[in-house]
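Table 4 source record.
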Amino acid sequence: MSETLAAARAEFTKMRAVRATSVALLLFVAVSVFIAALGGWSAKGAIESGNPGLRSDFTPEQAGLDGILYGQLALIVFGVLMMSGEYTSGMMRVSLLAVPRRGRLYLAKTAVTALAALAVALPVTVVSYLVTQLALGPHGSALDADGVPRALAGGVVYLTLMSLLAVGVAAAARSAVLPLAVLLPLVLVGSQILSVIGATKEVARWFPDRAGAQMLTVDSGDALTGLVVLLAWTAAALTAGWLRHRSWDG
């Protein structure tokens, strides 16, 4: 156990030392809060002006969770960089000399990624919600409104699992380019487009981001199903990543 903790401490030190990973975490905070404020301010203006462009299904409670859906892109980048950086730089050889047991090294990387994602996701999810309600002014809702605490908790779990999914995909690809080229477009627009096309609508709802989004939907009755589906995707990605990591020969 002490060797595993030492490996985890080393990974934490690497995370702080590499500028790109720190920037990704800061971007998650900045983007999430900015979109939360912008969305609340925009919705307030639409409500007070009677703008018909306001979504018919708009609720202040759900609007408070929109920011992190955009911010998650930065956390996906963070997860990819946490695993891929040492493959592309060749530093994986040095890490394996320090931690010869590949399972221990892989566990340390995934654990540090999960803890870092959780540490930022928890406060940012709550702050983003509150910022949206503040921007909405008299049209805002409370933190303890019906369904909101569960959706906030679901959002934190969702963000953490998506970060781990990115770790697994990056380990399987052994690079940053392919995972980012697949995951970012998929989460940003791909699955949303597929979810409104008749031929792919049923399939798209089982994609990790679409299924997981049920976890942070305030009035969703499928939050548990979404969690199970996202867990399955994450476990599959981490397993594939571990198999590739175990067979890496430099």
